[in-house]
Amino acid sequence: xxxxxxxxDVGASFARAATSSLLTTPRTAxxxxxxxxxxDEHRARPGSSASSTVRLGLRRGLLELKSFxxxxxxxxxxxxxxxxxxxxxxxIFGGTIDGTDxxxxxxxxxxxxxxxxxxxxxxxLATSIAIERHDGTLKRLAGTPMxxxxxxxxxxxxxxxxxxxxxxxxxxxxxxxxGLRLPADAAKWGIFAGVFLLGVVSCSLIGIAYGTLPRTAKxxxxxxxxxxxxxxxxxxxxxxxxxxxxxxxxxxxxxPLKWMAxxxxxxxxxxxxxxxxxxxxxxxxxxxxxxxxxCVGGFVLCLLTFRWKTKD
Length: 312
Fold this sequence. Notes:
single chain
């Protein structure tokens, strides 16, 4: 059982957002010419290119969101499927973790929360970008006056909002059904915010870079989903890390999902549960260091690998 079944639909929905109107509603000038006010301003004021790129990127993010939420099937699968898995596994596996008073259901919430974030960032972006490249959408966008950075900002805005909404829904369900306790300490919420933000950014950047690998739209799910499935099983999402072979734990430690799940456990589980972790502690500084490193590494990978059109 994995969280990959809906990825094809969600990725296609993310891709359709790119085919919406560019960034603004075009206006017709008195001489009959068609103009885009924000793009014209961007061209006329090169000194403010950075700020205008951000502004145009946020507007593009709004268009991406509108397009995504118009696809009812994608919205239902994106938000309902992880919750269905959480409820299913929570009903199958009961009891508490040996040596603690923490239930398996509470541990599961942190893992599924991290997995859900990676699903709407890495998996959906890699799939949708492969579709957009294959159908020529990226090539058309590259030929417009829109600053290229605005495209990526729009994608990150889309994934951030979807990840935030999915996480909020999961917490709203887990508190009454699984007895999950929300932290009363502001420092815990600070850790949560840091892990969430770094997780969204790092997985989004990795997804953008990984979206270069599929050569066609049809091959995208087959290339994107397997590594995501494997990482879920070796990163403490469905199986406790302490029950995994050391070799698999070492592999999982190279990628963000393991650290996101561990970071969320440190927020929502009692401090005493840290003794159950393989390292015997939450490793919070290392968690932030690894996720931040993947943000930098993912950005570099995007610069080195991203293509606006398919290879001939």
